[in-house]
From TrEMBL:
Family, per entry: Belongs to the ATP-dependent AMP-binding enzyme family.
Highest taxon, organism lineage: Bacteria
One family name in Pfam for this protein: AMP-binding
Record-given protein name: Acyl-CoA synthetase (AMP-forming)/AMP-acid ligase II
Cited Gene3D superfamilies: 3.30.300.30, N-terminal domain of ligase-like
GO biological process: fatty acid metabolic process
Domain AMP-dependent synthetase/ligase span(s) in chain numbering: 13-377
Keyword Membrane: no
Keywords, in A-Z order: Ligase
Stretches assigned to the AMP-binding enzyme C-terminal domain: 427-504
Record-level Gene Ontology MF annotations: medium-chain fatty acid-CoA ligase activity
């Protein structure tokens, strides 16, 4: 049976059952479920009135704000597909996504409109389908509030089934370009059920969403709260403010939030006198994800949030939730990302021959979740690569111990995780390699106490060509989101780049050599590289 309660249906249900309850809020305003339902309906009808039809894609570009929830629900009602775009991306990166998905409309927040203005001439969106919110719309844009005010408040007359696409979530690309993961409405319902069951959430919870609203993490947690009729609170500050965050936890009596290790580090770095000003006793559950957390950090989190039960997860845009390390397991299974979520299906590790490897050995992690994505937009080759029958993988290597706990070994083949953001070296390499002086480039992640890792580029120049570190960094500044840009660039000769027998650059060996050099371990390889770094 294809029909399922969609995100829009869930809001409509709570608008009937609890019309005056606050459904969503940020620091500037709040909406009851009834107000939320009405505004979402008006937005959906307004978009249909602009000539959009079921299945059309709508690009969404905004910082965290309450409008995200209006857009997700309004598009869901109208059968339109949300294409949330990371606000950190550069104009060329945004243009690629809009062109790749064939977006028919774009909704943009005022403070990000310059990025859209820079690419309007090259993307296939009709001029009357650019919608602007946050302040009075300039020439060339529809005004978001005016569109809502002028549209019908009744539910759009569109039949939306569980198998219909809810969103295209673009993930950083392992081949230099991002891919659009197709997420359907049924997946939202199933991941909401799994999250509520495993985490023990109820309609009385108040969840604070800090991660960007374009990210799977915030989307997956928000759908759980929406289906339950709990209150979603959005942290809409443009940059992370640790004191402001704990003030919100205290003032709004937040019961749950999901953060990355960098966020927790910044909170715990606040002076004790500052932290003690705020009563965070309502926080009952906490999530930490996206990067490994040290024992000392976990202990400090549990000490500060006395009532907060700490959880750690592993998942992805494509797979949804895969594993969970539960509160009672945090210190007994350090380094593990846990075992399967409730309702998440099964996990197995496959070797290069396609067979399962024994416990303790490293294999490629495959899972069979009921809420797995439908494939990559307009990319059948990569979709085929992701699936082995009903089993799906995003390329993570892991091992399982005899108790069934999973330990990640290599995050998506050299992926860099900085401040909770996934950065694929190949995507950064693609940009640097387009510089006319660059013959070859390798991008690796190097350890950073605060951010987890930072981006390091190692460059080989063409004979007779010159380029400086400042020049390469400037080249990246115009073409990459800030979190993807290298912090430093070093230059080596072609012979000094470590390679496999077939000539491929060995990123992990390169990283190990740099680390050895950094801690004074002067192996022969490290000595060679140190010489290259100091005397390029």
């Amino acid at each position: 049976m294809d029909h399922i309660l969609t995100l829009a249906d869930a809001v409509a249900t709570h608008a009937r059952l609890s019309p005056q309850k606050i459904g969503v809020m940020d620091t500037t305003r709040s909406l009851t479920f009834r107000q939320w339902q009405e505004r979402a309906s008006r937005l959906g009808n307004g978009l249909l009135d602009l000539g959009l039809k079921k299945g059309d894609r709508v690009a969404l570009l905004a910082y965290n704000c309450i409008e995200w929830m209006e857009m997700y629900v309004g598009l869901s009602q109208a059968g339109l597909v949300a294409v949330p775009i990371n606000f950190r991306l550069s104009a060329p990166e945004i243009a690629y996504i809009i062109k790749n998905c064939g977006a028919s409309a774009c909704i943009v927040q005022d403070t990000l409109s310059e990025k859209v203005d820079a690419i309007r001439h090259e993307v296939p969106i009709a001029s009357h389908r650019y919608i602007y919110f946050g302040s009075a719309a300039p020439a060339g844009y529809q005004e978001y509030e005016a569109l809502i005010d002028a549209s019908d408040s009744s539910t759009p007359p569109i039949v939306v089934e569980g198998s219909d696409t809810f969103a295209l979530l673009y993930t950083s690309g392992t081949t230099g370009r991002p891919k659009g993961a197709i997420r359907n409405h049924a997946g939202n319902a199933q991941i909401a059920i799994a999250t509520a069951l495993e985490m023990g959430f109820t309609r009385n919870d108040r969840g604070l969403l800090v991660m960007p609203m374009c990210h799977a993490n915030s989307i997956y947690f928000c759908v759980a709260f929406v289906y339950l009729g709990a209150t979603v609170v959005i942290d809409n500050r443009k940059s992370f403010d640790p004191e402001a965050l704990i003030a919100t936890l205290a003032n709004e009596r937040i019961t749950f939030t999901s953060l990355v290790p960098t966020h927790y580090v910044m909170i715990l770095e606040l002076p004790a006198a500052v932290r003690e000003k705020y009563d965070v006793s309502a926080v009952a559950k906490l999530m930490i994800s996206s990067a490994p957390a040290r024992k000392e950090l976990k202990l400090a989190i549990m000490d500060y949030f006395e009532n907060g039960k700490l959880h750690e997860l592993y998942g992805s845009t494509e797979l949804g939730w895969v594993t969970l390390l539960r509160p009672e397991e945090q210190l007994d299974k350090l380094g593990s990302v846990g075992r399967e979520w409730a309702c998440s299906g099964a996990i197995k590790m496959l070797g290069a021959d396609g067979n399962e490897v024994p416990d303790g050995e490293v294999g490629e992690l495959h899972s069979r979740t009921p809420y797995v994505f439908d494939g990559y937009w307009d990319n059948p080759e990569k979709t085929t690569e992701a699936f082995a029958g009903k089993w799906c993988s995003v390329g993570d290597m892991a091992r399982r111990d005899s108790d069934g706990y999973i330990y990640l070994v290599d995050r998506k083949s050299n992926m860099i995780i900085s401040g909770g953001e996934n950065i694929y070296p190949s995507e950064v390499e693609y940009v640097i390699a387009s510089h006319t002086a660059v013959k070859e480039v390798a991008v690796i992640g190097m350890p950073d106490i605060k951010w987890g890792e930072f981006v390091q580029a190692i460059v080989v120049l063409y004979p007779g060509q010159t380029a400086t570190e400042a020049e390469i960094l400037g080249w990246c500044r115009d073409r990459l989101a800030g979190f993807k840009r290298p912090r430093t660039v070093v230059f080596v000769t072609e012979e000094q780049m470590p390679r496999t027998a077939t000539g491929k650059i060995q990123h992990r060996l390169l990283r190990d050599q740099l680390l050895s050099a950094a801690i004074g371990n002067t192996s022969d390889e490290a000595d060679t590289l140190v010489t290259a770094l100091v005397h390029p």
